[in-house]
What does this fold into?
Amino acid sequence: MGDIIVSEFMSVDGVVQAPGGPDEDRSGGFEHGGWSFQFEHGPKLEEFKLSEVTESDALLLGRKTYEIFAAYWPTADSDDPMAAKLNKIPKYVVSRSRDDVSWNNSTLIEESVPDAISALKQDVDGDILVYGSAQLVHTLTEHDLVAEYRLMTYPIVLGSGKRLFGESSDTTTLQLVDTASMGSDIVLLTYQPAGTHE
It folds into this structure.
């Protein structure tokens, strides 16, 4: 059975929106696009991101993140091992507004998202990696489908933007299972669910 792994670039106040640039915000109006580039991304972070992808068996993406990735990675340098893996790996896209997903090895999930993803976990043997996709992560969290959260935490408070964990009447307790420095300012915090909703 597969494990869903959520991997995010995140500000101290929990914002995960558009860390790489304003093009990542398709809704418009987000003033902080590209906020992660205020900090040095050293080789340790790059090595971690590459190993994370190469060790995964599938990608699970929301519509906006899929559109960003599908616009970039198919035309990226074919000698780039990250591009090679992302273009080859099976991709599952959660969207009710798209009617097709043309990026290689992509499958559309349109309805009954929690049930479809529970079934996907039965079909995939290894890690199912989730990047970005804040709305999708909210759904996964609400239905106890996430096995691990890997949060690359940056020392910045943005004050606005889409947050990893949305408002909810439920409480989820997490257990910190690992910490690692990804450079002079970035810390990787790895959490696993410690209990059920209360």
Notes: Helices lie at 43-54, 63-72, 81-88, 113-123, 134-142. The chain has a mean pLDDT of 90. The radius of gyration is 16 Å.
